[in-house]
Design goal:
The complex is a heterodimer. Chain A contains no helices and 13 strands. Chain A is mainly β. In chain A, the strands form 3 sheets. In chain A, strands 2, 4, 5, 6, 9, 12 and 13 form a 7-stranded mixed beta sheet that branches. In chain A, strands 1-3-8-7 form a 4-stranded antiparallel beta sheet, with no helix packed on it. In chain A, a hairpin with a 5-residue loop joins strand 7 and strand 8. The termini of chain A are far apart. Chain B is mostly beta strands. In chain B, about 0% of the residues lie in helices and about 50% in strands. Chain B is built from no helices and 12 strands. In chain B, strands 2, 5, 6, 10, 11 and 12 form a 6-stranded mixed beta sheet that branches. In chain B, strands 3-9-8-7 form a 4-stranded antiparallel beta sheet, with no helix packed on it. Chain B is globular. Classes of the chains: A mainly beta, B mainly beta. Chains A and B meet through strand 5, strand 9, strand 11 and strand 12 of A and strand 5, strand 6 and strand 10 of B.
């Protein structure tokens, strides 16, 4: 049980290049998220998914696209990288819990990807 | 919109002593979760403790406990018997239900963090 994994761990891009970050989870979680973390900031949500085939925008979606073709994978794409997208990217997943009120449960995070755009 | 505020950018504590990290939040939701995450230099986000808003009892997890004041919208973290391995950034986070299920966002809203240093 690897939990949440992210590929790659580090990447350097030139302005205008494209790339895809891969997040995979083996916990059969319904929800998956992409966050970015910048110095002096907490994590900010880019996009999220509440199930296979569904995605939704978060707080800072511009310049990013996502896809969730399989339940266990959540891809984050940068079509034309900009220096402002230099950041650490975290993927997270959470189960769908039916308790007193159905809602997402604890989020489990991957190790992060450090992306530098020159 | 929900907001989370951590008013202490940095704190330090002597090993074996107790420290309290502050967190306040603003929301109109009635049903939500609150979390404290730890981020050591390894960068990994590690769940420390969580609190369901509908529970009046404060959550505890070994040396970690919270003081949840719902009316005041306050959620502080107390670390007892501090250890060198507790040195990390600590993030307070607020979570609600997805809009697809009646909530407002579904993701976590994070504070900017408190950098805790435990000194020998």
């Amino acid at each position: 049980n690897a939990g949440v994994t992210q590929t790659p761990k580090f990447r350097v891009l030139k302005t205008g290049q494209s790339m895809t970050l891969l997040c995979a989870q083996d916990m059969n979680h319904e929800y998956m998220y992409w966050y970015r973390q910048d110095p002096g900031m907490g994590l900010r949500l880019i996009h999220y998914s509440v199930g296979e085939g569904t995605t939704a925008k978060g707080e800072v979606p511009d310049g990013y696209n996502v896809s969730r073709l399989k339940k266990q994978n959540f891809l984050l794409g940068l079509e034309s990288a900009a220096p402002s997208q230099t950041s650490v990217y975290f993927c997270a997943s959470s189960p769908w819990t039916s308790g007193r009120a159905e809602q997402p449960d604890t989020q489990y995070f991957g190790p992060g990807t450090r992306l530098t755009v020159l | 919109a929900q907001t989370v505020t951590q008013s202490q950018p940095e704190m330090s504590v002597q090993e074996a002593e107790t420290v309290t990290l502050s967190c306040t939040y603003d929301t109109s939701e009635s049903n939500y979760y609150l979390f404290w995450y730890k981020q050591p230099p390894s960068r990994q986000m590690i769940l420390v403790i969580r609190q369901e808003a509908y529970k009046q009892q404060n959550a505890t997890e070994n040396r970690f406990s919270v003081n949840f004041q719902k009316a005041a919208k306050s959620f502080s973290l107390k670390i007892s018997d501090s250890q060198l391995g507790d040195t990390a950034m600590y993030f307070c986070a607020f979570g609600t239900m997805s809009p697809l299920h009646g909530g407002s966002q579904g993701n976590l809203i994070f504070g900017k963090g408190t950098k805790l240093s435990v000194k020998p």
